[in-house]
Every structure is written in structure tokens, then in C-alpha cells.
Amino acid sequence: MKYRRLGKTELKVSVIGVGTWQFGGEWGMEFNQGEVDAILDKAGELGINLIDTAECYGDHLSEAFIGDYISRRNREDWVIATKFGHHFEKNFEREQLWAPSDVLKQLDGSLKALRTDYIDVYQFHSGTDEAFDNDELWTVLDKQVQAGKIRHLGTSIGSNDNFHQTAGSTKVGSKVIQVIYNRLDRKPEERVFPSCQEQDLGVFARVPLASGYLSGKYKPGAVFAENDVRHRHDQEQTLKKLQQVEEIRQNEVPAGMDMATWALAWCLKHPAVTAVIPGCKNPQQVAANAKAAEYLNDSHPQAWKE
User: Fold this and answer.
1) Closest by alpha carbon to 139, among 103, 115, 172, 102?
2) Distance separating alpha carbons of residues 291 and 299, to the nearest angstrom
3) Residue 68, Cβ neighbours under 10 Å: how many?
4) What residues pair up with 119 in beta bridges, in sequence order?
5) Domains and CATH numbers, the chain
6) Which tens digit of pLDDT belongs to each residue from 136-182?
7) Residue range 195-234, pLDDT digits in tens
8) What pLDDT is stored for residue 176 in this prediction?
């Protein structure tokens, strides 16, 4: 595994993280604690130390799985990033909760579920610019940083071209940007990444496999089951994506290299990107994700220097 400095937080994070939206039960399957333990055990074995979750992946369900696991391990070995701003409701629905008092309740709920005294990176989760511009919210959060409940603040931007929230990061004390970035969606390269580099912000690239389209498993014309989130995507756009993936496979992926591994390594080569946070359903997928680190050199500007 390779590690990078997470911007001005100075945290040492593995270039591959574990995305845990799937633990909330909306990824086509439900998990039990034993299955989560096996996934995180494999991650730790391979040197992965970064876990990304949120209060609304289930009603603190993903956090609770992680918390149960961490309670039986060394907390200091892990960098845990979670989020705030929503309340889970069934059928992919979320209630928006941005009032400072609501956020404090969410923070306490996350700390309880995670069974920890502190959160390493606490992220504003896909909120509006109006919610982001609430100075009272960031003042309250800063007090939680001073109290030791939060180590660092971050922003998970909903639009991958949200320059307003990215550019305002330093002003509000946010040190990390999480953004959708992958070979099919390079929009952050235009404005978001240059701003991150200018401010020395850490960057988490989410959906690095483009919701699995870049996994190499699906050909043009693939049909997804009703309980698969991709079933809800526009069919015409899905066909275009899969056709583009096929062109990338033929023209960009080296012969004999797994496409998913290539796609993760591709993201990590951008100088602004600190880590990718792909989801995973089992230990085998964790191991496959981790292989991407083998294709990186130590010339990245955020490469960890011992």
C-alpha cells in the first residue's frame, strides 16, 4: 500500500480507502456484522487505513457496523471520515437537516454509532450553497473541533463542479474535498482540482469506478436488476457510458490489466487526488481495489514522506 498526506490535515491516509454506502442496504444486498468484519479485516491486512461513511447510509447503520468493528480493534490505526446534513428515509430518500442544532445531534449520533470519541474528517454532505454559507453552522462545528470531537472538517460536494463550496473551504475551515471523479467524469479537473491544489486541500475521489461501469464487467446492452441502483439510471445514458467504456478498454487499458484496477490507478495519478474510496461487497473486491496502489510511483506531490 502507498500513503499520501491528506492536504493541510497532515493525516497519513492510504491511497485506497473503503467506501461504505453499501453497508446501508441500498446497494442490492444487506450486510451482517461478520461480512463487514471480513471486508475491513482484509482492508487492514492490505494496509488500507481510510474508511468513508455517512450518517444516512442507513439510519447510522453503516457507522454502527464500522463502530462495532473498530471497538474490537485499535482505533488509532484507522482514519474515519463520515458526513452530516441528512436523515435516512427508505427508498433512497433523505431529509435535509442543516440547522446547527440538528447537526450537533447528528454528530453525537455518529460518535455513538462509531463507538469513538472523535471523528477524523467530518464532512458537509452534498448541501446547497445556502446551507454552506451559514456562518453559524461552521462556528458551531469549529467549537466541536476545539472540543476534540472532530479532528478536521471537510466538504463532500454534491455537484462535481461546485466551485463555490470548494473555493470557500479555507474560509470555513474545511480541509478536505470529496468529489465524484473517474475516467468518465473529468469535470473536477477544470475548476475544483486547481482550487484544491491552491488551498492545499486533501481530495477524496468517490465513485472512481463510475458506479461499476468501469469495472469491466458490463458490455453495451447490459440490463441491471430492479434492486440495483443502476436500474434507476437513464437507459440511453447507460448505453452511451458502456459504449465509451468499451472504447476505453480497447484504447487505453494495457493488455492483461484488470480494468477496475486501471480505473482506480488512473484517478490516483492526478496531482490533486489524495485517495479513492471505491465501494466493495466482499474481501475479494477489497483486494482487487488495493492492487491499484502497485501501479503508482512515489512522484505524486502528496506522497507520504517518512
Assistant:
1) 172
2) 18
3) 15
4) 150
5) 3-295 (3.20.20.100)
6) 999 999 999 999 999 999 999 999 999 999 999 999 999 999 999 99
7) 999 999 999 999 999 887 898 776 655 565 555 555 556 6
8) 98
Cross-sheet strand order for the sheet of 79-84: 17-19, 50-52, 79-84, 119-125, 150-156, 174-180, 202-206, 275-276
Whole-angstrom CA distances from 214 to 31, 117, 217 are 24, 37, 8
Q: How far apart are CA 40 and CA 48, in angstroms?
A: 9
Residue 138: all three cell numbers together: 461552521
- Residue 79 contacts residue 123 (beta carbons within 8 Å): no
**Which residue has 482505533 as its cell numbers?**
75
CA distance to 89, 99, 166, 248, per residue, from 268 (Å): 33, 35, 19, 17
Rounded to the nearest 5 percent, the helix, strand and coil shares of the chain are: 45, 20, 40
Quickly tell me which residue has 487499458 as its cell. 253
How far is CA 240 from its chain centroid?
25
* CA–CA dist 165, 215 (Å, integer): 30
Give yes or no for a contact between 89 and 95, defined as CB atoms under 8 angstroms apart.
yes
Q: Among residues 124, 218, 230, which one has the least CA distance to residue 177?
A: 124
CA 129/CA 126 separation, integer angstroms: 9
Nearest-angstrom CA–CA distance, 169 and 132: 10
d(CA 129, CA 290): 35
Strands (E), the chain: 3-5, 12-14, 17-19, 50-52, 79-84, 86-89, 93-96, 119-125, 150-156, 174-180, 202-206, 275-276
Helix axes 61-70, 100-114, angle to 10 degrees: 40
